[in-house]
Amino acid sequence: MMSWIKNLFGAKESGLLVVILALGALLTAFSGKVRLPVFEIGADGERQRVFITNEAGERVAAIAEKNKFLNVQNLAQLAKDTSFIAIMAVGMSVVIIAGGIDLSVGSIYALSSVLGALVFQYYGTNGAGANTPPWLGVGLGALTCVGTATACGIVNGGLIVALRVHPFIITLGAMAILRGIAFVATKGQSVGGFPLLFRELIRFETSGGLSLVPLGVMLLVTLIGWIFLSRLAAGRRIYAIGGNELASRFSGIRVEGVKLGVYLLSGLAAGVAALLALGYYGSASSGDGQGYELNVIAAAVVGGASLTGGKGTALGAVLGALIIQMISSGIVILGIDQNYSQIIIGSVVIAAVVLDNINSWLSNRRLTQASVGKH
Amino acid sequence: MKRLLILAAGLALALSGRAAERTLTIGLVAKSQGNPVFQAARVGAIDAAKELGAKHGYVINIDWRTPNEEDAQKQAEAIEQLVLAGAAGISVSCSDANKLTDAINSAVKNGVPVATFDSDAPASKRFVTYGVDDIECGKQTMEELAKVMGGKGIVAVLAGNQNAPNLQKRVQGVKEVAKKFPGITIRDVYYHKETAQDAAAKIEQVMQANPDITGWALIGGWPLFTDNALKWKPGTVQCVSVDALPAQLAYIRSGHVPVLLAQQCYEWGHRTVELLFDKIVLKKDPPAVKEVSQLIPVTKENVDAFAKNWDKWLPK
Predict the structure, then answer these.
(1) How many domains, in total, are found in chain B?
(2) Number of CB atoms found within 10 A of residue A134's CB
(3) Is B35 part of the contact surface with chain A (CB cutoff 8 Å)?
(4) Which domain holds residue A344?
(5) By residue range, what is the domain housing residue B11?
């Protein structure tokens, strides 16, 4: 079983997967049952509750009893809640692998959200551009959101390269500046009223009432991140710079260009996450994404990214985000007093990283022993 | 004997089934964990659960799912998770009404009624909202302040989170009333992170830069949760604040603050749990969708009597 998992995911991710499976098994075993209403698709194509007649002849809503954790609705909810942080964590992993850090992702998320939201609102049902073809409004809004985030990433990268200042300082400054711009742009107001086409696109539900678009986008971003980092020369250069910047420079890699690129990708990922959240939640304010930078960095690090650079994967980042979200959701499912939630999340994050490190150490040791055995 | 055992087992099963049916969970989602007003709401909800449970023979659990810091997205996730965890009803104070509307509507669609308190989501399908009228709250704050300032002076407004719609309405109320007093000028509205230290630091900064300010309208009580926020002699600068938490009452006694306007934050939890229980169990709708709670003025005259409430309202 373990070797199959390792072949499929690689040694690093297999450890994370074991943690996820163990958490899933524990939550399934201890979560108990929940009584949820039963739905069906009505003649008008809308989901509607199913009603039955009970023994007393009363018409009552049909209820199905399910495992609180292991049911399709909960797993879809878990995937959706994970997706926003996970997408940003893929971008953050790229930055961390290159030996950098991006503290401004939460603010990029907020600024791209509110600027995108202002465009969406303009083309929304009550906006001045309501008569414009919906696809145009949706396209322009999406472009503004993702474009703003990408531009922020380029500015971050440009300043880090041009001023030769540590990324911690530049992105710390950007964190405050970008959130300030978001506040000025919205005057502190929540911006909503988006085109229905956009909302329906992101909130699209299957016949079972599951919103799978965030999950789909997260998987797509993971796949692209995985291909980029492990199959393309551009990705290998990022590992090289993170491993040894000086050696990379002497071997002919254009370090500045690569650094600029990683911040661009981090911004782009934050923009994609912001766009998804805009469509799903239907509004934005300058307070959005506060503290997300730490969640995103935690997800990347739990996923195996090394803050000293040179290590990490896109899949690891997503699995790291999933572990953190599973713990957070698990606290609700198990009905644990929320007063203890931060203590539990912090402890499990450390435990996950330690377990993962032990797993990597054992793998390396086996590899070394096998290599010694051959000689 | 065998029949007797089967009968006993059947009876036990029936009784346990009945007991399970008479247990219900109500989710409580406030804006932020650290704010004492929401802790009072939590105590209110737990008390209401005990009272109603004893009266009607129910075991009512209050499932508190509040973000550590204000985050509407996390609140929406909490509502969705509570629905999936089997909550029978949810009471929520909305950090961003727009962002929570879909989550509330989805809960209602899944048969889970939602009540809002303190900060509403008016476009949602919540069946009731409970709290102060925020514009009136701002108006009352400014009226009390104008009274103690003798209708003249320079006023600063302390307003917490700039994104909170309820606080924006209170600021609007303050400004509307200030216009009625030609001798009063509003210097500015000052926002800050909603922690006691940040709020106290903001007052200090503003007073250093603007020593001519003679009145403060605090539309939330944040700085007064510290014990040294108002560094002037009592009476030299006037101050009226919303909320009357235990730490704030010391400022009434010291004479720094002549009037506190207490929100009924304990009732936020207590009343919404009552309303939810009525809706879920007794199948009774509230008389109106908006239930307004009045502000209670706390002055030197009634401060000691009011302080006794907190023995009951604070988490044990």
Answers:
(1) 2
(2) 17
(3) no
(4) 71-333+340-360
(5) 2-132+265-285
Whether B7 shows a pLDDT value over 80: the answer reads no
Residue A230 near residue A94, CB atoms below 8 Å: no
CA distances from B270 to B83, B111, B133, B285 (A): 21, 22, 18, 17
CB-CB contact of B170 with B191 (8 Å): no
Q: Please, are residues A40 and A207 in contact by the beta-carbon 8 Å criterion?
A: no
Q: A14 or A58: whose pLDDT is higher?
A: A14
Q: Which residues of A touch B65 (CB under 8 A)?
A: 332, 338
CATH number of the domain that residue B162 is part of = 3.40.50.2300
pTM of the model: 0.78
Residue A338 to residue B97, Cβ atoms within 8 A: no
Q: How far is A50 from chain B (nearest CA, A)?
A: 11
Question: Chain B residue with minimal CA distance to A79?
Answer: B77
Domains of chain A: total: 1
B127 burial via Cβ count (<10 Å: 0-12, 13-18, 19+):
middle
Select the more confidently predicted residue: B213 or B162. Answer: B213
Asked if B110 is an interface residue toward chain A (Cβ–Cβ < 8 A), one would say: yes
| Residues in contact with B293: Cβ distance below 8 Å, sequence separation at least 6, in sequence order | B130, B131, B132, B263, B264, B267, B268, B271
For A329-370, write each residue's pLDDT tens digit. 888 888 787 778 778 888 877 877 787 677 778 877 887 888
Query: Is-contact B294 B137, C-beta < 8 A?
Result: no
Residue A149, both tokens: 């985030």
B194-226 pLDDT, tens per residue?
777 888 889 998 998 899 999 999 998 889 988
Helix A292-302 crosses helix A72-97 at what angle (to 10 degrees)?
90
What angle is formed at CA B273 by the lines to CA B36 and CA B71, rounded to 5 degrees? Answer: 45
Domain co-membership, B146 together with B117:
no
B160, B217 in Cβ contact below 8 A? no
Residue in B64, B101, B162 closest to A188 by CB = B162
Quick one: tokens of B288?
Answer: 């109106």
**Do residues B23 and B86 touch, judged by C-beta distance below 8 A?**
no
- Domain CATH for A327: 1.10.3470
**Within this chain, do residues B9 and B49 fall inside the same structural domain, yes or no?**
yes
Q: To the nearest whole angstrom, how far is the Cα of B98 from the nearest Cα of chain A? A: 6
Q: Which residues pair with A52 in a beta bridge?
A: A60
Asked if residue B248 and residue B237 are part of one domain, the reply reads yes
Q: What residues does A284 pair with on adjacent strands?
A: A191
Could you give the ipTM of this predicted complex?
Answer: 0.71
C-alpha neighbours within 13 Å on the C-beta side of residue A62: 10
Taking CA–CA distances from B65, the nearest residue in chain A reads A338
A276, amino acid identity: L
Distance CA A31, CA A39 (A): 23
Assess B39–A contact: CB distance below 8 Å, yes or no. Answer: no
CA–CA gap between residue B104 and residue B117 (Å, rounded): 13
Q: Are B126 and B272 members of one domain?
A: yes
Decide if A77 and B81 are in contact by the 8 Å CB cutoff: yes
Q: Is B290 part of a structural domain of the chain?
A: no
For A190, list phi and psi in degrees, rounded to 5. Answer: -80, 135
Which residues of B are less than 8 Å from A335 in CB distance?
25, 61, 63, 85
